[in-house]
Amino acid sequence: MFEQFDALLLARIQFAFTVSFHFFFPAFTIGLASFLMVLEGLWLKTGRQLYLDLFKYWVKIFAIVFAMGVVSGIVMSYQFGTNWAVFSDVAGPVIGPLMAYEVLTAFFLEAGFLGVMLFGMNKVGKKLHFFATCMVALGTFVSAFWILSVNSWMQTPTGFEMAANGQILPGESWWDIVFNPSFPYRLVHTVMAAYLTTAFVVGGVGAWHLLKDRTNLHARKMFSMAMWMAAIVTPLQIFAGDLHGLNTLEHQPQKVMAMEGHFDSHPDGAPLILFGIPNSAEKRVDYAIEIPKASSLILKHDADAPLAGLDTVPDDEEPPVGMVFWSFRIMVGLGFAMLGIGLWSLYARWRKNLYDWPLLHKAAVVMGPSGFIAVLAGWITTEVGRQPYVVYGLLRTADAASPLDAPAVAVSLLAFIVVYFAVFGIGIWYILRLMSHAPHVGELGAKRGDTGPIRTAGITPGPTQNPGHDEPLPTEKEEG
């Protein structure tokens, strides 16, 4: 029944589906791990029970999101060998070691300290537990470092040699591969996007509970910290995005042409097309609403600077303009909406009604998932804008796929869709359920099972006094 489908298209849909699903989780855990580190650090510095309660509230959510991220990431990596075997063979000498470094550094670091962070607060000293939390946060960043290095090399490949058999081999220096031209910009832009994603989730949860009870001190603190992040980081993110765009114009001009909707070259200054309907068949943007010469001003910092269009690019080198055009606008639009919320919160602080402005709280609730949407739109812009290449300028996507029949790819795609929505749907539902409960004094945090781990050797421990629950810390007893 799937014979009429294109195997390459199905393979691309499958990878897009799994990588989009997967990236939701790291985009949250990168920022949430740092947020937990800050909360525990503030608790150790001030001794306030409030910060410990918030730490225990969010660490339960972190554990679930982290687990779903690991599972979805493992599944995604298998596709390199199943659906994209040619890509693995051609680019494997470069891609393989970089991904191995991610496992040997970041994943081992996270896995080594995660158990201490989740369950060790009453088992180790405060400083050692805080060190474990810091290591988990560092591990999430190191993981982002290596994965983004891989992706950036695929966008702007450098430091390689072409073998006689067509393989892409590392050159004399791995530094040229790791720190390729687009990597620093993509790393900064993506990590700050993760921080903003977490900030708006935390702010949305805090605002939700403030709408129910404005006197909830835990909700107030969550909302305040999130709004500080929105107000400070969003302008920095917009600035970093501008630098990233200039770097993309230098190394991947076709992508910027598609983002801007420039089918024609503009020798005397290009307009900024705000909205319109890209018409690739007729090579124009229908119903365009534009600002004259503004695109040249943004990209070249000169209103009269010439900008080349897709008319200078062969048809088989053009990325899909419609998808890139609109995903870019969704990302930018949400970025400015985040800036608006951040500025609004500063105004509310100045008026001393940050916690007593229901309209602001409702807006923050609506903006809660905005970071995920913006991150996904940004990755669509990046990945679709790279087409028709999987390794830019070296290996075309059409040449990278495995020689599979359409029915084989279609069956696995349907299986992924069913399993992902069933398994991860339940996980997301449970996370939302945890968020729906307001944080309170004496949060328990992550709980161990009543029986503990199964042992095959050694001494079996006796029953604990309070199985499955955290015993209160001395400060909790004193303050409780």
Automatic annotation (TrEMBL):
Bilayer topology term: Multi-pass membrane protein
InterPro entries recorded: Cyt-d_ubiquinol_oxidase_su_1
Entry keyword Electron transport: yes
A single cellular component GO annotation: plasma membrane
GO BP: aerobic electron transport chain
UniProt entry keywords in alphabetical sequence: Cell membrane, Electron transport, Heme, Iron, Membrane, Metal-binding, Transmembrane, Transmembrane helix, Transport
UniProt cross-references to Pfam families, sorted A to Z: Cyt_bd_oxida_I (PF01654)
Region (Disordered): 448-480
Principal localisation: membrane
Protein origin, superkingdom: Bacteria
Composition bias type Basic and acidic residues, residue spans: 468-480
Keyword Heme: yes
Subcellular location field: Cell inner membrane; Cell membrane
TM region positions: 20-45, 57-78, 98-121, 128-148, 192-211, 223-240, 324-347, 359-380, 409-432
Gene Ontology terms, MF aspect: electron transfer activity; heme binding; metal ion binding; oxidoreductase activity, acting on diphenols and related substances as donors, oxygen as acceptor
Family affiliation: Belongs to the cytochrome ubiquinol oxidase subunit 1 family.
Protein name from the UniProt record: Cytochrome ubiquinol oxidase subunit I
